Amino acid sequence: MRDVIIIGAGVSGAFIARKLSRYQLDVALFERESDVGNVTSNANSAIVHSGYDPVPHTLKALLNVRGNAMFDEISDELDVHFSRCGSLTVAVTDEQLKMLDDLVIRSKENGVPVKLLSKEEVMAMEPHISKEVKGALLAPTAGVIDPFNLVVHCVENAVDNGVELHLSEPVVDIKDLGDHFLVKTSKGEYETKVVINAAGLYSDKIASMIEDIDWKLIPRKGEYFVLDHYDVGLVNHTIFPLPSAKGKGVLVSMTSSNNYIVGPSSEPIDDVEDFATDSYTLGEIRRQATELVPDIPFNQVIRVFSGIRPTSTRHDFIIEPAKSNKRFINVAGIESPGLVSSPAIAEYVFENYVSKLFNLVEKKNFNPRVKKYRRLCDMNEEERNRIIKEDPDFGKIICSCEKVSLGEIKELLTRSVPPTTVKGVKRRCRAGFGKCQGGFCSPMVTLILAKHYGVSPLDIKWDKESSNILVEEVKKL
Amino acid sequence: MIKRDLVIIGGGSAGMAAAIEAKKNGIDDILILEKDNVLGGILNQCIHNGFGLTEFKEELTGPEYLSRFADVVKEMGIEYKLDSLVLDVTENKVVTYSNANDGIVNIEAKAIVFATGCYERSAGAIQLSGDRCSGIITAGTAQKYLNIHGYLAGKRIVILGSGDIGLIMARRMTLEGAKVLCVSELMPYSNGLNRNIAQCLNDYNIPLYLSRSVLRVEGKSGRVEKVVLAAVDDKMKFIPGTEMEFECDTLLLSVGLIPYVSLLDKLHAEMSSTKGAKVNDQLMTSIPGVFACGNCLHVHDVVDFVTDEGREAGRGAANYIKGLSEKKRHITVKPGNGVGYVIPQYIETDLNNDITFKFRVRKPIKDVFVNFKSGDTLIQKVVKMVLIPSEMVMIKINKSKLENLPVDEIEVSLEERK
Questions:
Q1: Residue percentage of chain B with pLDDT more than 90
Q2: Fold designation for B122-255
Q3: Most buried residue, A291, A448, B109, B345, by most Cβ within 10 Å?
Q4: A470 touching B (Cβ < 8 Å)
Q5: Residue A243 — very low, low, confident or very high, per pLDDT cuts 50/70/90?
Q6: Among residues 411-440 of chain A, which lie with CB inside 8 Å of chain B?
């Protein structure tokens, strides 16, 4: 019998797992995908929002602001690239300028430091912004983070502290047996005292396995452009339009890796597996984005993608026990600002629910830090030469666009949550993230994975089970 | 810091030719830095024939062609380092490279030749609509998997773009037992060489659909399942009702090659519409002592011309190192009516007896004059029967004709013959 089963290794499940790994609990984390943080946590704006925007006194407001304050420590402990670049919410009409005043009031209620800037101040900070700008709201605590490694390192840290991770193992049924549950997966059955449902786009289905629920998910797709490294300093902050009923609107931001991201759209969809992009929506994003930043170099686009928000009919985070059993805790409807809120969501789940279900004892050997990653991009020349002397593979560059070495890829494979797919390698170390999009390095990455796992390159996947890259070995001479 | 006369970045066709030519012109201290584990660059995976018709008057395979130059590099004792990627180049011509044996090394060069080749435009860059599944692969990557590693990347294939690598791969994958369903080209004309259309498509009954592109890719299972093509109008907008569906496992992309010059970009070298650097008659970029040639300058259709351009850059670099390339003028060469780009973009020295102007037309055109004008003065008029964008045009003009021009500008333009 396990103490806690967490369903879903997205950013919420990851932080909950890490929080629980501090205590003497038997915790298992189940994920239907072949990698952690592979769905909604993988495809979003990657913004650590300041929290000026959620309706005051909602869980979104509370947990966003609390989560934001935790990110300096988290990015340090989990060794994830994070930068508090600040955000600017930009007014381009007089009407919008008035709305900024309302946002100032809301920011105060939410406890978020902000400053109103004049047109001149905005232009000085952001030379590429539209000349139509009337003013802006600066939120200096906003930031950008590497969302991929945030989840990977968080789960790694949980695993290093004793959490058991099950990948590619969807939960298919749950039986409520009163004082415990029987969780059936694609691979087996597990008894557990507590279930935490952090299943993202599937959280409604999981919740419905034990009772009828009075909420549902109304998922919304958001499409994005990603631009290559562009050294002119297109924008220095995350640039938002005024928020509307549809969300925070189309933003233009640098990313933690010095790319630029433009998006998202916001369209309701029926099918939570529909990640297709379309030229009409992307054209609309482009139109809206250029209202704020007219000279975005769209000829530098290297990728378009979409993510799906698990918006709920309650329009707030749903973090509460099931009506029929307090040992089943739903963590659902975690749409934006879910990424920034996730560490605070984990605390909230712990303090309000889990801690009341167990007599908890802290582990003596809990370590909040992941073992430091050795990344060439973080090193100076002297450090690089030292590491290449120790391990020559760090001198052999595999991805020439992003300058990722063989040593870095091999090291990923030794970690507790190693990549098993080409996408998994890309997400972790950026091999294939550059202007050629893996054209040059993906064959090498495929072969490295095949060699490491002792399989044929035919068995190496891009991502999902059926996403093989190669189909046949040709006749040998 | 290590000092070198000439550092050549890239040991493919352009880089090897530049090195050999610089050596012949009296430069002994040369280092080629190659990121791959062999010399020859992309030719290593081009196992089809058709290389060397101009250079050797015979048809060679890619590996045969490159080995002729690699042999000369070795015979001449030109130093090269393999598995060595250049990480950075500064304005003061300090080249930083990385490899497993040497670590990170800085070299101060008197001159640098960029011969870094090109990369393939990706699905992301063309903002391909539809699912993000596996089975969407660029033609060159599929070529590498097949010809170097021995794996087929797909069995039922739709090809988007009629670039030469796509055409070559249509034939190559067909020969390995794959079924190529069609080639779809956005433009109303092919972007490949005529001989490749004939030998790689027509000979295998593979249809080529012009003015058609991918409306969407379907592949929710994780791998491409279907590609939907549709016709486009003259504004490149899809025409409803023209959809064609193909059940397939692969979408092969051959949608353009782009000079791979992020380091020149970072140096703020003056860039051209080719996405390569602007160069003068010595193939020197706007950064003194830094040269560019081959596919990183502009994408070529035939390797023989890459070799020739490499030699030009090698001579240019040798002249610069020897202090011969004094700038005596600054004539701007610009594309006029019907012309996409012209290389060189500037004429600054008087070292060459002839200057070869290389350019591409914007769209197929028949029966034209190519006019070289400076102001109102016609310098040269050349008749051409057929010009197409996929074939680079080269016209040589004698030095004497480029002296005493009325303005410091030459325009290359097309004029229809009545």
A1: 96
A2: FAD/NAD(P)-binding domain (3.50.50)
A3: B109
A4: yes
A5: confident
A6: 435-440
A42-101 residues touching B, CB cutoff 8 A = none
Residues of chain B with CATH 2.60.40: 327-418
pLDDT per position as a tens digit, A251-264: 999 999 999 999 99
Per-residue pLDDT tens digits for B356-366: 999 999 999 99
B152 contacts in chain A (CB < 8 Å):
470-474
Nearest to B163 by CA among B137, B148, B184: B184
Considering only CB atoms, which chain B residues are within 8 Å of A231? 266
Catalytic residue status for A452: no
Average pLDDT over residues A240-259: 90
Closest partner residue to A385 (CB to CB) among B104, B129, B146 is B104
| pLDDT for residue A411 is more than 80 | yes
Q: Which of A395, A442, A467 sits opposite B99 (nearest CB)?
A: A395
Query: Residue ranges per domain, chain A?
Result: 1-81+144-214+310-372, 87-140+220-309, 376-459
Closest chain B CA to residue A226:
B124
Q: Outline which parts of chain B fall under CATH 3.50.50.60.
A: 1-119+257-325, 122-255
Q: How would CATH label the architecture of B1-119+257-325?
A: 3-Layer(bba) Sandwich (3.50)
Q: Can you tell me the ipTM of this complex? A: 0.95
Helix (H, G, I), strand (E, B) or coil at A286: helix
For A436, which of B122, B152, B220 is closest by C-beta distance?
Answer: B122
**Confidence band (pLDDT; 50, 70, 90) for A298?**
very high
Quick check: A400 contacting B, CB < 8 Å? Answer: yes
Q: What is the CATH topology of the domain spanning A87-140+220-309?
A: D-Amino Acid Oxidase; Chain A, domain 2 (3.30.9)
Quick one: chain A helix, strand, coil %, rounded to 5? 35, 25, 45
Identify whether the C-beta of residue B158 lies closer than 8 Å to the C-beta of residue B213: no
Element (H, E) at A463: none
Nearest to A447 among B127, B134, B149 (CB): B149
Are A471 and B152 in contact (CB < 8 Å)?
A: yes
SS3 at position B344: coil
Which tokens go with B398?
A: 């004698």
DSSP per position, A293-311: STT--GGGEEEEEEEEE--
Tell me which chain A residues have a C-beta less than 8 angstroms from the C-beta of B220.
273-274
Catalytically annotated residue among A49, A153, A166, A237? A49
Nearest residue to B74 (alpha-carbon basis) of B115, B111, B40? B40
